[in-house]
Specification:
With 230 residues, this protein is an alpha/beta fold. It has one domain: Spore Coat Polysaccharide Biosynthesis Protein SpsA, Chain A, CATH 3.90.550. The chain is built from 8 helices and 9 strands. It has a 7-stranded mixed β-sheet with strand order 3-2-1-4-7-5-8, with helices on both faces. α2 links the parallel β2 and β3. α5 runs parallel beside α8. The longest helix has 19 residues. The radius of gyration is 17 Å and the shape is globular.
């Protein structure tokens, strides 16, 4: 078995150089213990800082995909997923607000499901997030559930694992920014693939790239998904 870990990175020079060493070290032990192959694919999504320079120091340990200009998180993930050939693909945020150790919990559930999604809502006791972000997150999730009919408490958590059957549906997503999450899940649900929502530990790490304006843009993307995939 092989697992591909895909990490999008935009202006992450101050975080990814701290998270990657631990991720690389942990996955080496995880692979050895479970006799599983792993690969790490990091996508530099048109960063304007020294993210690519930092990533280059790990070129012997990770696969680097890089381009310019910035195209959005959904686009970045599609570029990484295109190169991923693992039986399972794990997408993760560069700050690893959900620790890499949770990958074991995802793998445990993959024999029964096509896709396992991390849920901050189900893991409330392990969630550390600002009140404003929590408010906007709850409001946007309510809209997603009502408009798309997705019965998940948290579609937007950046940590998800899925098998190769799901890969084509991710690549079909038209939203290149934050709307890819619910578009992907909507396509999976519509086509009868099995999805499991799982509680995760999650801690807000540093400054988020998600702004108030992002939530309004996501609403527009939400309407587009309903129209595009009737």
């Amino acid at each position: 078995m092989k697992i591909s870990i895909v990490i999008p990175a935009y202006n992450e020079e101050n975080r990814i150089g701290k998270t990657l060493p631990h991720v690389i070290s942990y996955l080496k032990e995880f692979s050895k213990k479970n006799q599983i192959q792993t690969e790490i694919i990091v996508v530099n999504d048109g960063s304007k800082d020294k993210t690519l320079e930092v990533l280059t120091t790990f070129k012997d340990e990770v696969i680097i995909v890089s381009y310019f200009p910035n195209m959005g998180k959904g686009y970045a993930l599609k570029q990484g997923i295109t190169k991923a050939d693992g039986d399972y693909i794990y997408i993760a945020d560069a700050d690893f607000s959900t620790p890499i150790e949770y990958i074991e919990h995802f793998v445990e559930k993959m024999d029964k499901y096509d896709c396992v999604i991390g849920s901050r809502a189900l893991g409330k006791e392990d969630i550390k997030v600002s009140p404003l972000r929590k408010l906007f997150g709850n409001a946007s999730n309510l809209l997603i559930r009502s408009i798309l009919g997705l019965n998940f408490k948290d579609t937007q958590c950046g940590f998800k694992m899925f098998n190769q059957k799901c890969k084509p549906y991710f690549l079909m997503c038209e939203n290149n920014r934050y709307g890819y999450d619910f578009e992907f899940l909507y396509l999976l649900h519509k086509n009868g693939l099995m999805i499991k929502e799982m509680p995760v530990e999650w801690t807000e790490v540093g400054e988020s790239h998600v702004t108030t304006a992002s939530y309004f843009k996501t609403f527009a993307e939400l309407l587009h998904v309903r129209k595009a995939h009737k």
